Amino acid sequence: MQVTDFAPLTALGLMSGTSMDGIDAAIVETDGERLIGFGPGASFPYDAEFRERLRGLIAHGGDEAEVARELTERHAGAVGRLLEGIGGVDVIGFHGHTVSHRPDRGLSRQIGDGAALARLTGIPVVDDFRSRDMMEGGEGAPLAPLFHAALARDMEKPVAVLNIGGVANLTWIGPEGELLAFDTGPGNALIDDWTLKTTGRPMDEDGRLARGGEADARALAALLEHPYFLKPPPKSLDRNAFGAGALGGASAADGAATLTRFTAAAVARARDFLPSPPRRWLVTGGGRLNGSLMAAIAQALEADVEPVEAVGWRGDVLEAQAFAFLAVRSLRGLPLSLPGTTGVSRPVSGGVLHRPPGDD
Ligand SMILES: Nc1ncnc2c1ncn2[C@@H]1O[C@H](COP(=O)(O)OP(=O)(O)O)[C@@H](O)[C@H]1O
Ligand SMILES: [Mg+2]
Closest Cα to residue 165, out of 24, 60, 27? Predict the structure, then answer.
């Protein structure tokens, strides 16, 4: 049977990103190939206390079972809130929260219990999106590129979609729709960690801190010596692959300015691996709201960069939409990744389906 014969489904995607800012949730209607409609989307921020527990678990371990249980319950809460007044959806795509991403060891681990989420919501849940890819030699990341390609279906190519979350990743969509995707390097995580440490605030709102500082060229050069930048794609990163050690005793503002330039310089390095220059750079993820970072990227690329809203996409919930789309692809047995997106040896599907009790 051809995939185009499948009736569209409504799917709800859930993403808890490496920034640990909260849960993004969004609904799409799709047959797994085409995007037929977009439902509501919303973000449900974590409170500082839960964020600290998540941060602690990732940094030095802890009561994983307890944090995972609470994470699952918070996701169930997000589903309930998003579905208020809507009724139901056919399937949930549940990414969970990454506690460790070590593609060099074939490991990427997300916490969150899909079976429990199916029970709590009464809706079938697809989770564990990354394992199959890694078993077949892939990096397990990034997984949004096929969704970006579906979104960009009717756009003039090549197009670059840059997602600046905790880590930043790039999808290049070529003239014939071919895909190359990989993590570029740091995204917001280092800037967030630095801002928290030096000012007590969880992020550099609109890049105001960085705007008042001056980048330290020597520290920047040291940061860019990381071997990751020389490695050709496919490649992906753990949230904590980079540290801010090179900053030494920099002021809060100068450190933020340096790390902002670092994220931007990493994007420029990534551009060197692209088969041909993109006509447009579309930026999604929370980093698009950091004016200093957007300006630094435009300067590093010597190109215009635009938030994805410029083409009508929703940057705040794009990843959540991607996991809704991928959940439907998983149900259809369609690939979630390709050699060009994760380095997997062949196109592979993935995901594990959990049905709620009594739903056969
Ligand atoms: N108004 C803003 N100004 C500057 N940075 C922002 C703003 N809003 C969000 N961010 C950044 O985006 C991050 C969240 O981005 P997000 O795309 O959700 O990442 P992830 O996918 O890793 O959760 C925040 O941690 C912060 O660094
Ligand atoms: Mg987030």
Answer: 24
